[in-house]
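Hey,
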Amino acid sequence: MSTGFSIGYMNFTILLLLLSGICMLSLDVKTYERAHLKKEKKTARILAWFNISLSAVAFIGNLIFRNM
């Protein structure tokens, strides 16, 4: 049963979270590693995985919401 309520920007939000997490892992972490900045590297890695996991949770939540 559809309620007629729709979140139009959810797909873009999921995509942006995923892409920002991947970019942080591929660019920021390597940059900090080359500069020998351990705390910044660890923080960037944690935030990148947080973005990726948040995009996965939002994707699953969006699927559940659409199928209700």
